[in-house]
Every structure is written in C-alpha cells, then in structure tokens.
Amino acid sequence: MSIAKRNSRLSAIAGALATLAAVPARADWSLLNMPRGVSELSREIYDMHMIMLWICLAIAILTFGAMAVAMIRFRKSRGAVADTRMLHNARLEAAWTIVPVVILIGMAIPSVEKLIKIEDTTGSQLTIKVTGYQWQWHYEYLDSGVAFFSRLARSSDRARQLGSGIDPNTVDNYLLDVDHPLVVPTGTKIRVLLTANDVIHAWWVPAFGMKRDAIPGFINEMWIAVDKDKPGTYRGQCAELCGADHGFMPIVVIAKPKAEFQAWLAQQKAAQS
Q1: Residues 216, 200: contact at Cβ < 8 Å?
Q2: Which residue from 8, 13, 176, 181 could staple onto 252, CB 3.0 to 4.6 Å apart?
Q3: pLDDT averaged over the chain?
C-alpha cells in the first residue's frame, strides 16, 4: 500500500472518529429512546424495552464481530483453507440451535407477562371513551354525562396557515396544544375505550407508555394510571396517518389530584346540564 493511500485512509478514519465524538454534544440522546413515563406500567414497559435492547445489542456484537474476524483473518488472500470438519459438526449445530431457543424463551416469558398486564383492565375506577375524527378527538366520561371535543388550539391553527405571517416560534407548544384537554385523576386506574368515526386514528401519549389504534366500527381498549406524585400536563399526537391534517391532531392530558379532578368534573356537569 502506498504512503499516500495509507495516509488518506488514516485521515478518513480520524475524521469519522472525530464526528462520532462530537455527536453526543450535539444530540439529546433522550429523544432517541422511550421515556420512562409517569406510571408504574410505563416504567415496566421501559425496563423491558431496555433489557431486550441490550440482549439484542450483545447478540449483534458477538455475531457481527465473529463474522468480521472470520472474513479478515481467514480470507482466501491469506491462504486460508476451509475446514471440512466444521461443515457437519453435530455439536456445533446443536449449540447454535439450542442457545437461540433458550434466549428466545428467556425473552418471551417476561414479555408475555407484561403483555397480559397491559391488556388487564380489571379494577378500573374510571372509564373514558375516546373517538377519533378528522381531525379532532371526542372525549366522553361514561356514567357522568360529561363529553366534549378537543381540537388544535386556535393560536397554533392560525400560525400554521400559509401566509399567516405568524412566527411559529412565538406560539407556546406550537401544534401540541388543544382548546379542551382531557383531564384525569392521578392515582387512579383509568380504562380508555377507543374508536373512530371515519378513518383509523391512533391515540398516543409517550409519557403513558401506551399507544392504541382507534378503528371505525371497533372498540379498542387500554388503561392508564398516572402516579399520585406526578400531576401535570402530558402531550401526545395521533400516531396513525389519517389524512391531510394528521399532523395537526394533538393530544393533551392534564392529570390532577383526585379532589381537584372531582371538583373539575362537577363543574363540567353543571355547565353541560
């Protein structure tokens, strides 16, 4: 290899390493992963996700590392000759069959346990029906008579119009705010029934660790439970391409302590009656 070619290759490697070293300073790595969430279930989902990620990463490093070593050290140009004894080795074949099966079983058992828990809505203390429309949400608190539509906030709607002359950076929570947020109590298991009136939508709030499709003519369900010590505002979006204004269909959930939620619910009942 010529000196110029070798120097060129070293320069390319050095440049790549410098770029990778600078990436953590430029990127918010929390945006590349799931949030831990504000409920016990969302944290369990996060922990399971991380376990599976590290297992898959370890398998990838071992597998591709072995492939790279084999291709570099035992390439034909170095005079390597295939060992025919490896072609039909019963012990090796048994090992690379049994080991992946054991790994898959070890991953499947806790995963199934979490899936069962995700689908278990028993013991719910509040039921809310969510209906998706193009392009808004309708919330109905069953057994209380409270219902309302939730649309993109007017400030965001005005700013998004072509030729509005409004700088979106001046709008708080641009495209992530609504006129009527969903209000829920903390420390309460809430059953959420989902459907749609036109096309398929998907109700998704990252902090809850849950996403579920809203399908016309079909009732889907899930449950959420915000920790008692985690009141606040949580934002999400429709996660299913549902038409021209799909990107303008946010979700805002305000979690209040139980006493404040009951006061809010009574106020809504009085107003709607």
Answers
A1: yes
A2: 181
A3: 87
Confidence (pTM): 0.78
Residue closest to 136 by CA, chosen among 273, 251, 216, 56: 251
Cis preceding-peptide flag for 135 (omega within 30 of 0): yes
pLDDT at 9 over 90: no
Residues forming beta bridges with residue 128, ordered by sequence position: 141, 192
The highest-level CATH class for domain 126-272 is mainly beta
Q: Domain spanning 33-119 has what CATH number?
A: 1.10.287
Domain locations in the chain as residue ranges:
33-119, 126-272
| Burial class of residue 273 in the structure, from the number of CB atoms within 10 Å of its CB (0-12 exposed, 13-18 middle, 19+ buried) | exposed
- What single letter denotes the amino acid at residue 156? S
* Residue 82 pLDDT grade (very low, low, confident, very high; cuts 50, 70, 90): confident
